[in-house]
Amino acid sequence: MLTPDTPATPLDRKPPTSELVSDYLSRAIHEHRLSPGTKLGEDELAEIYGVSRTIIRTALQSLAHCQLVETHRNRGAFVAKPTPDEAREVFEARALLEPRTAKSAALKATKDDIAFLEQHIDMEHEALSAGDRGRALFLSGQLHVHIARIADQATIASFIETLIARSSLIVALYWKQESALCDRHAHHGLVSAIENNDAAQAEEIMSRHITDLHAALDLRKATTQTASLKDILG
User: Fold this and answer.
1) Alpha carbon of 184 to those of 25, 122, 181, 229: distances in Å?
2) Tell me: the pLDDT tens digits for 40-88?
3) What is the CATH number of the domain that holds 16?
4) Which domain, by its residues, includes 53?
5) How many CB atoms lie within 10 A of CB 181?
6) Positive or negative CA dihedral for 85, 87, 91, 94?
7) Do residues 102 and 194 make contact, with C-beta atoms less than 8 angstroms apart?
8) Is 68 exposed, middle or buried (0-12, 13-18, 19+ CB in 10 A)?
């Protein structure tokens, strides 16, 4: 499972499993090092990670199931590239699900949950201070996933995790200003409301926050970049 501590590339000399390759690639996508539309060649990835094409193919199938990767017959696999209409649908779905989830989290959060969320925000701030925008973006998205899990709504949390992954691709394509990164003040206010068991306030802050994120995107024009997989992942 993808976590803030999942490395972007293998840290030892043992060939990684398909699950680890999937995690490495997922992290690179979340951190915007692998841009939407990037071709994920099996041979090149197999060379980078020192594994067989079978392992790479399994990892790519897993990412396709999470909608992070698209596969095209006779063309191969590519990092998914959501359309403007898909982007609107994702944020509309988040606006429906996440405010109610924040409300539920405010009624169920324990002291340990609050400590975890506060530590997570600290890591996000450290990444921003270090200029590591990709890691900050990854962490900000994962905070939303953690809130959904605290709400103890497993099915909805699974939906939200998929929506957050799609949102990362959308931000990579369409962000027009730095505020497309989650506003640190919104996260502080959200965690404070959850800590105070203020369900109505948590719901309101989350609703406003999702609206602000959506407004920070320019769905008229997609941003693209090109680089070799070896340069990005090697």
Assistant:
1) 26, 10, 9, 32
2) 999 999 999 999 999 999 999 999 988 899 998 888 999 999 999 999 9
3) 1.10.10.10
4) 1-81
5) 19
6) positive
7) yes
8) buried
